[in-house]
Amino acid sequence: MNELQIGSHILTRPIFQGGMGIGISLGGLAGAVAKAGGAGVISAAQIGFREADFKEHPLEANLRAIPKEFARARTISPKGFLGINIMVAMQHYAEYVIGAVAAGADFIVSGAGLPVELPRLVEGSKTLIGPIVSTVKSAQVILKYWDRKYHRIPDFLVIEGPLAGGHLGFSKKQAETYLESDRNLTAAVTDTDMPAGKRPYSAEITDILAAVKEYELRFRKHIPVIIGGGISTREKAEEAFALGADAIQVATRFVTTEECDADEAFKSAYVNAGPKDIILTKSPVGMPGRAIANSFTKQVNAGKKFPPTACYGCLKGCKPKEIPYCITEALINAANGDQEHGLIFCGANAHLCTKIETVEDVMRELLGE
Predict the structure, then answer these.
(1) Residue 227 near residue 159 (C-beta atoms within 8 A)
(2) pLDDT of residue 174
(3) For tag attachment on the chain, is the N or C end more exposed, with fewer CB atoms within 10 Å?
(4) What is the pLDDT of residue 344?
(5) Given CA atoms 30, 65, 101, 214 in this order, what sign does their dihedral have?
(6) Share of residues in the chain with pLDDT > 90 (%)
(7) Beta strand pairing status for 107-110 and 128-133?
(8) Distance between CA 17 and CA 301 in Å, rounded?
(9) Is the sign of the CA dihedral 101, 106, 112, 117 positive or negative?
(10) pLDDT on residue 26
(11) Is 321 exposed, middle or buried (0-12, 13-18, 19+ CB in 10 A)?
């Protein structure tokens, strides 16, 4: 758990705060994490939802909000490591990347798809880039593609496991490949101990690290690897570092902090949740998502539809007339504190968030300080 250098930046605490949209990780939380020595991350997902013209002009509102939130974070942490999470699945992906670079982002982290064009979009800037991957196959594809087309490697790489919150980087079938009950990343489980077709996620992490090592040797340069998904305690952090992580990615634990940008009712939903309240639900774009069960998720999982009141142009492939509900509207409801009509995304260990803390409290506990 040493200091970590990424580019010319040094993290005194090797923790990346995960990006959480809509409106959960904005300038306030990101700035606080960066000020405390970690990497603060602003989520670009519908970041302008509080702008007056958001419903009529969502893209313009979002692009306007990016520099606003980044400036707020920079005010809190003038010299901290601050970045923006931009999902590949977002419509107008290129515009958001360009907007993040123009705002002065130290780095961009990008998942929910393979960010194959990201190097081109940041070319000529000082913005560092890190893809998010969940399988060795996706890691190999992005490493090979960036090598062949751009003759470069990632500045860092994030491995996000199946216990993460929000949209998962797995199909439902892929998620079922891993034992949700096996929360010990480093458990020495043999093939004979596992049900047919199952394997611990630690085996996938090991394979990804091997793929990364190949390109480190080729380019003679270290690629820092950040491991995330279900890391909510000191023990889980130690397991990730023992597997070979240079840093850990943590999101859920930062929701119940004083500095988090979420509504107090959103934070209360975490504090009051039990293990059985954390479920997988259906996203309107086909990906499974992890959330806290409420009236809304029960109705969605039962097949009820909630026709969108408008289209906010958020995700690629979304067909407003066919989807069961609008994920932008559901996430905005949650961000505004509506616990019963909102989609409250969370990680698998959200039930461990039993009180409101500070960012400093969380980081000290995770690193055993």
Answers:
(1) yes
(2) 61
(3) C
(4) 95
(5) positive
(6) 73
(7) parallel
(8) 30
(9) positive
(10) 97
(11) exposed
The predicted model scores a pTM of 0.92
Say whether pLDDT at 173 is over 90.
no
* 3-state SS string for the chain: CCCEEECCEEECCCEEECCCCCCCCCHHHHHHHHHCCCEEEEECCCCCCCCCCCCCCHHHHHHHHHHHHHHHHHHHCCCCEEEEECCCCECCHHHHHHHHHHHCCCEEEECCCCCCCHHHHHCCCCCEEEEEECCHHHHHHHHHHHHHHHCCCCCCEEEECCCCCEECCCCHHHHCCCCCCCCCCCCCCCHHHCCCCCCCHHHHHHHHHHHHHHHHHHHCCCCCEEEECCCCCHHHHHHHHHHCCCEEEECHHHHCECCCCCCHHHHHHHHCCCHHHEEEEECCCCCEEEEECCHHHHHHHCCCCCCCCCCCCCECCCCCCCCCCCHHHHHHHHHCCCCCCCCCECCCCHHHCCCCECHHHHHHHHCCC
**Residue in 22, 33, 80 with CA at minimum distance from that of residue 262:** 22
Cα atoms in the Cβ-side hemisphere of radius 13 Å centred on 235: 6
Name residue, tokens 């020595």: 37
Looking at residue 172, its pLDDT comes to: 64
C-alpha–C-alpha distance, residues 116 and 94, integer Å: 11
* Cα dihedral across residues 215, 218, 221, 222: positive or negative: positive
Residues composing the chain: 369
Position 14 pLDDT exceeds 90: yes
Mean pLDDT for the stretch of residues 219-239: 95
Is 64 in contact with 75 (CB distance < 8 Å)? Answer: no
